[in-house]
Amino acid sequence: MIVLSEAAVAAVKDAMVKAGQRDGGLRILVKEGGCAGYQYVVDLDAEQRTDDIVIEAGGVRVLIDPASSPRLQGMTLGYKRGLEGEGFTFENPNASSTCGCQKSFN
Description:
There is one protein chain. By secondary structure, the protein is α/β, with parallel strands linked by helices. The protein has two helices and eight strands, in the order βαββββαβββ. The protein is globular and about 35 Å long.
C-alpha cells in the first residue's frame, strides 16, 4: 500500500523520540483543500483509531483513515533535507497533477 523510504523512517523515529511518543504512529490523511484540490496532512498521533488501516514500515507504524486510503494506494513517502529546508516528499501514482509545494495534488 504505502512505502516509506529509509530517510522517512528515520525522520519519523526521530520525531517520536523528540516528542516522547511511544504509542501510535505517523498519521497520513488526505483532505480537500490546497492549491490542487487535495492536500496531505502528516502528523504524529499517539492513538490508533479502531477503523485505522495500519502499515508497519521499518519499525514505524503508519495510521491511515479509510477515507484517505484509496488516494494513498501505491504512494512512497520520502524525506528530504536541503537548502530550502526539510520535510516529507510524496510520490503518489494517484495524483494526476501536483502544485509547486508538492503537498497538494489532484
